[in-house]
Amino acid sequence: MFRGTYTALVTPFHHDRVDEDAFERLIEFQIENGITGLVPVGTTGESPTLDHEEHMRVIELAIKFARGRCQILAGTGSNSTREAIAMTREAEKLGADGALLVAPYYNRPTQEGIYLHYKAIAEATALPLVLYSIPGRCGVEIGVDTTKRLAEAARNIVCIKEAGGSVERVNALRAALPEEFTILSGDDSLTLPFMASGAVGVISVASNIMPKEVGDLVRLFDNGKITEARALHLKLYPLFKDLFIESNPVPIKAALAWAGRMKPDVRLPLSPITEAAATKLRGTLKALNLLA
After folding, report:
1. Domains of the chain
2. What pLDDT does 4 receive?
3. Active-site residue 132, yes or no?
């Protein structure tokens, strides 16, 4: 159900408010360049610093602006199961195509707790659900066996966004899961090797600024054009890395601002990009003809 190229959207701010006009322009840019889907209010969308009203408003706007032209995978994860259920139900009412649910962070639940968390959410909604394992931010991973149990226990848990940085884990997931359960890369720099091990696309940060190129990479691999996909991956790799030169989404917001698409504003405790990082990132963007 979920395969292809999905953009983990930034949330534009201006004067500490969601910049709805810039958000609409960003979504139009994505759709014009053939993106499969959009993911509002994930990590890249600064979900930790949006209040509940803002969080649901950004999802509502994404659905409104997309007008059915691409899938909307709403970020509704939380370290509170009750909150995740409430947000997922709201996203379902708003018309989202699915929900992305990050692993419970800070609480550090056991694998049994993670299983029960996701099972409870799945039982509370009819939406297709995407698990999101990113142990570097959450302190826990969604284990391979836990993922398999969830796929067997809940028909609407259909995909995992894998951001653990390990090709071996993708191999293990692919071997353990039914073929219809899809795997998406959660790291632009690992999309190609992950697809070689059975992933079917990416939830991308880089596609905020270059949706066509990231989409082309996925399509080339899907069409069996491995040499061309590898050449494009190597061309884009410096940007994939430099977009994480500081905490996401600081670099991608700076890049979008330099391209004239929005303000670079982030919310505390994130801070503006440093001069040294900005110089390096600008050079990488110019080399790819993404800046004048």
Report:
1. 4-225 (3.20.20.70)
2. 98
3. yes
